[in-house]
Design a protein that fits this description.
134 residues, alpha+beta, GMP Synthetase, Chain A, domain 3, three-stranded mixed β-sheet, two-stranded antiparallel ribbon, elongated
Length: 134
């Protein structure tokens, strides 16, 4: 129909997985709760990519990690021309190391620096990515 389009996107991945996505511009009250939130998806993509780069840095330095869980948050912002974007993603990782290892805070911070440099997602976006202190 002229002037109409679907606001129910479907993400397909290699024909194996399909995800129903919410309309990112719709107010929360009008979003379908069953559909994936695009902002949360974006934040999780950034957090997951950083985690993998961080784990690689730790592994490369002989550090054994028991668990890495991130409660990352995204900051949606409005530009002067009233367009929205995600201005910042704050990573809030909780990291547990193997009981036989004590890892200093400066080493953990260095792994985050390496991850921010090495992560191709972080290098590909204009969103500021920060890591909050544990």
């Amino acid at each position: 129909m002229p002037g109409k389009y679907s606001r129910k996107p479907l993400w397909r991945f290699a024909g194996k997985l399909s995800l129903k996505v919410a309309d990112a511009l719709a107010p929360m009250a009008y979003r379908d709760a069953v559909r994936l939130d695009p902002l949360k998806s974006y934040v999780e993509t950034v957090a997951s990519a950083h985690m993998l780069a961080w784990l690689h840095a730790a592994f490369s330095h002989g550090v054994e990690v028991e668990s890495y869980l991130d409660a990352a948050e995204g900051v949606p912002s409005i530009l002067p021309d009233r367009r929205s974007w995600v201005s910042e993603v704050t990573l809030k990782p909780g990291i547990t190391f193997h009981p036989s290892q004590e890892v200093e805070a400066k080493v953990i911070e260095r792994f985050h620096e390496l991850a921010l440099q090495d992560c191709f997602i972080a290098r590909s976006i204009k969103t500021k990515v920060t890591v909050s202190a544990p």
